[in-house]
Amino acid sequence: MFAEVLDCRILLISGSLRIGSTNSATVRTAASVIVAGVSTEIFEGMGELPHFNPDDDIEALHPAVTHLRTRLAAADAVLFCTPEYAGALPGSFKNLLDWTVGGGTYDKSVAWINASAGSGAVDAHASLRTVLERTGTDIVDAACAHIPVTRQAVGTDGVIEEAVIRGRIEDVLGALAERVRERRAARVAQKVATTVV
């Protein structure tokens, strides 16, 4: 769960179910990085989500869907890290995104890390941008980054220890948190201005 005393809560979501995934390692590393005022939580339930069917998006939701939406509602921002399969988003990850349509990520600040080597996964991340734009998120371009991660960079505990990579992940979290705080301050200022008028 998120720490109550921290002012920015970021939900971390890996788009891979594969054991040994560098994307999941990147997410775990993000959870281990300390950024002032930032609390992180990894969403672990992607594999339990049922296939999306609008007919099933009813009051009596599958528990895994309820869990996803509850964690999204508790977060101020979301950071994704996904691989590319056959030139597109992995099916299980797209299924997760489908379950967020209609409010799960609406107006929430989001960003992603592309952990693929070289110029890989560009099509998947272009697709991710399209989906996130269509669902009304606040894409924080300053927090979107290509941080190549090799399997050799991942320790036996599944976390990246390389200082340069950890530093870049810290920068991503910091930029995402900064956007959350900027938007929060703007809403407060707008509310004050409206009250004064």
Characterize this entry briefly.
This protein has 197 residues and is of the alpha/beta class. The chain has helices at residues 22-32, 63-74, 91-100, 122-134, 163-196; strands at residues 8-14, 38-42, 77-81, 109-114, 138-139, 145-146.
What would you note in describing this structure?
The structure is a single chain. By secondary structure, this protein is of the alpha/beta class. It has a single domain, classed as Rossmann fold. The chain contains 5 helices and 6 strands. Strands 1, 2, 3, 4, 5 and 6 form a 6-stranded parallel β-sheet that branches. The radius of gyration is 17 Å and the shape is globular. 38% of the residues are buried. The mean pLDDT is 93. Pfam families: FMN_red. InterPro entries: Flavoprotein-like_sf (IPR029039), FMN_Rdtase-like_dom (IPR005025), NAD(P)H-dep_reductase (IPR050712).
Order of helices and strands: EHEHEHEHEEH
For the largest beta-sheet, the strand count, sense and barrel status come to: 6 strands, parallel
End-to-end separation? 39 Å
CATH topology: Rossmann fold
Mean pLDDT: 93
Q: So, the CATH homologous superfamily?
A: Flavodoxin domain
The percentage helix is: 40-55%
How many β-strand stretches? 6
Low-confidence stretches: none
Into which percentage range does the β-strand content fall? 5-15%
**Shape annotation:** globular
The number of helices is 5
Number of domains: 1
CATH class: Alpha Beta
Radius of gyration, Cα only, in angstroms?
Answer: 17 Å
Structural class: alpha/beta
CATH-derived architecture: 3-Layer(aba) Sandwich
